[in-house]
Amino acid sequence: MKTFKLATALVASVALPSVAFATDLEVTHWWTSGGEAAAVAELAKAFDASGDKWVDGAIAGGGGTARPIMISRITGGDPMGATQFNHGQQALELVEAGLMLDLTDVAEAEGWKEKVFPQSLLDSCTVDGRIYCAPVNIHSPEWLWLSNKAYADAGLPVPANWNEFVESAPQLEAAGKIPLALGNQPWQSNLAFGAISIAVAGLDVWKEVNVEKNMDMAAGAEYAAVFQAVADARSLAAKSTVQDWNQATNLVITGEAGGQIMGDWAQGEFQVAGQVAGTDYTCLPGLGLNAYLSTGGDAFYFPKNKSADIEAAQKRLAALLVSPEAQVAFNLKKGSLPIRGDVDLAAANDCMKKGLELLAQGNLVPSGDMAWSPDVQKQNEDLLVEFWKTDMAPEAAHAQWVSNLKSGL
Asked: At CB < 8 A and 24+ separation, what contacts does 199-205 make?
């Protein structure tokens, strides 16, 4: 079993040998919130310190906005030096089309197979035995973030799980609070559904449906209960009118909302706001019901380029992203978990330590991005947006969801 070293010292920057020729490398990503910008700045600082130059190509609006732009540039012959995608199948067609740089030589030289944990992260970068991306973090969406201030204002104890959270909603509303903060970006309602699925149906049922592709289980009582729970959550978020996920997080930070279902990247926003885990806010992995993490996250791919200098710089950046120093500096700011188990995380906060413990215990499930094709994911994203924003009956949404899954078999 992998364990994580929580020692007393922290190396905060990367110090790599200087390169013979400094090269500008455009890096596109969708990290634009306060916490995200602070995290990506650590990668840029490390790359610049190594002798090359990180040319930042941030695209606002989240992955749903950024990915089509990135893909269009790559397929249109205007490739960037490096680009962010999530672990899974998002870049598979680009790899299969021969548009992505093969990083197998870098991975072998740096010993990624021995260092990257869990193995599924590197597997998601591998096509036909060759490695095409550098994973940089583990992000899990199954978290409930609670405002200690909102509950204090309402004269209530902070809930210990999702069921208590739902029960507290009427009293929160009576105190003028929004029970559940939820932004209007489509991926947010999809994320909330996934988190509620594992919390309510449980890990074994989730695996039967998403790994074993058991459609009888998908259509059964366990997921009927999930859709009813989402319908309950829908009413709790009715007065949440913000757009972006970090705006919803800010409602929790300021005590205007009781809680938010969001990935562990929300920690970056709490950190920028100067809030302390366990004091100002409470975090519940698995919504406090089933404490598991899904091993999604972010990776960088490197579109092929005709310049030998660019290709050399791409491989230097790939190696740097997986280095222990970059892993520590970036993930402490991002709120995510590192992709290797031999790094020093003495500075981890209370919530990050909860995640590290679950990771070390192996309480993991594969990301939905790894389980279903982009087409199936998009169909269900559209369905869940409609479900969250209308009065669609849980039974109707459940039936359509199962139909969408079957289309991907």
From this structure: 199/142, 199/162, 199/229, 199/286, 199/287, 199/288, 199/289, 199/290, 200/162, 200/225, 200/226, 200/229, 200/289, 201/225, 201/226, 202/290, 203/290, 203/292, 203/365
SS3 call for 346: coil
Residue type, 302: F
Q: Say yes or no: 274 and 389 in one domain.
A: yes
Q: How much of the chain is helix, strand and coil, in % rounded to 5?
A: 50, 15, 35
Question: For residues 177 and 242, what is the distance between their CA atoms, to the nearest angstrom?
Answer: 14
DSSP state of 133: E
pLDDT tens sequence across 128-150 = 999 999 999 998 889 999 999 99
Per the structure, the complete domain to which residue 69 belongs is given by 24-139+296-362
Assign residue 208 the CATH number of its domain.
3.40.190.10
CB distance 131 to 112 below 8 Å:
yes
Question: Each residue of 175-197: pLDDT tens digit?
Answer: 999 999 999 988 899 899 999 99
Q: What are phi and psi of 138, to 5 degrees?
A: -115, 120
Rounded-to-integer distance, Cα 393 and Cα 231, Å: 8
Residues 150 and 246 in one domain: yes
Q: Which residue in 354, 177, 141, 316 sits closest to 259, CA to CA?
A: 177
Taking a C-beta distance cutoff of 8 angstroms, is the pair 42, 329 a contact?
yes
pTM score: 0.82
- My answer on whether omega of the bond before 141 falls inside 30° of 0, hence cis, is no
d(C-alpha 146, C-alpha 143), whole Å: 10
| Residues 287, 164: Cα–Cα separation, whole Å | 10
Q: CA-to-CA distance for 95 and 286, rounded, in angstroms?
A: 33
List beta partners, residue 133.
Answer: 301
Tell me how far apart the alpha carbons of residues 106 and 299 are, in angstroms, rounded to a whole number: 15
Using alpha carbons, list the distances in angstroms from residue 201 to 153, 274, 289, 365: 32, 35, 10, 14
Question: Mean pLDDT score of the chain, rounded to an integer?
Answer: 91
